[in-house]
Design brief:
alpha+beta; 24% helix
Length: 160
């Protein structure tokens, strides 16, 4: 899949070193729990490659979590923050999912304090659905403010 500035392609085992480098950045992982990088090699994860430079910018998730429901997520190297790539990639996956993929609803969650990701979700057309609290064994800073869920239905997308 191509956007104006990104190529989104299936993640592959050859991306493991880039994934490790991305996940080793404490600022990238500030609001996230670590998981083995191999968890991101499935068909629901897409490497984001900057067209102009050919560099690995990060990844996007568009993973089925229920009948017609997919979860949107992303992680980008810091040098790609603030360039609109998260919104660009997210919108492209949402467009494809609703237009051709049988998606009925897109959901996403992040920490309440992660204002950057919340803004990206809003720019992608998702709306705040709820704030909730999770009991973590080792809570991240800001966990006391809870998690937020955002969503966009196919009907809402069609009415935009």
């Amino acid at each position: 899949m191509e956007t104006e500035r990104l190529t989104l392609r299936p993640m592959s085992p050859s991306d493991v070193d880039e994934l490790r480098r991305l996940h080793a950045d404490s600022e990238v992982m500030r609001f996230l729990d670590p998981a083995p990088v191999e968890d991101y090699l499935g068909p629901s994860f897409h490497a984001a490659v900057e067209k102009a430079s050919g560099r690995f910018a990060g990844w996007f998730e568009f993973r089925p979590v229920g009948e017609g429901v997919v979860e949107l997520g992303y992680r980008l190297h810091r040098e790609f923050w603030g360039l609109g790539y998260a919104t660009e990639g997210g919108k492209a996956l949402i467009e494809r999912g609703f237009a051709t993929g049988g998606v009925r609803k897109v959901v996403a969650t992040t920490m309440f304090v992660n204002t950057g990701s919340r803004r990206v979700l809003e720019k992608c057309g998702l709306r705040h659905v709820r704030t909730f609290h999770v009991d973590w064994d080792e809570p991240l800073p800001g966990a006391e403010y809870g998690e937020v869920e955002y969503a966009l239905t196919e009907e809402e997308w069609q009415q935009r």
